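Sequence decides. Our protein:
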Amino acid sequence: ASDVYKRQVFSGGEPLVQECLAEAIAEVKALGFAVGLHTGGYRPAQLKKVLPLVDWVGFDIKAPFEAEAYRRLTGAAHLRQAEESLNLLVESGVDFECRTTCDSRFLECDDIRQIGHDLAARGVKKYFLQKYRPIPSDSTTQDSDCEKFFRDKALQEELKSMFACFDIRR
């Protein structure tokens, strides 16, 4: 069987809100699966508990590392927690990537540039931009609004120069 069938990913919402996550991961690992985790990082104490158990983490960077920007985008004051979680990841040795969903309602190309510079300065090696896809309750965002991040070739070249691994996910 292919190794792809031997991986399990815990995602959500936010899987770190589940108090029994470490136990669930341990059970999955005991079955012989590799484990991935998708998180926004706003629960660093819980991340610290599960980091020794996971093989990979996908870390969502929601906004530039400024308190007001993070609060505006997430609706909560989670910047300090996200930064603490990012530091834990960088220091852990666990394979991880950071990614930002390019939602034109909240972010501009300069925001993505700033995020990229901040992540590179913190030691992040893998960064991905993800295309925002309007949800049914978003009747104003057009597909073309979301494309502006991917039409900016200077931004892409700048980000490519900062990371060992950079790509766009459409």
In short: The chain has a mean pLDDT of 94.
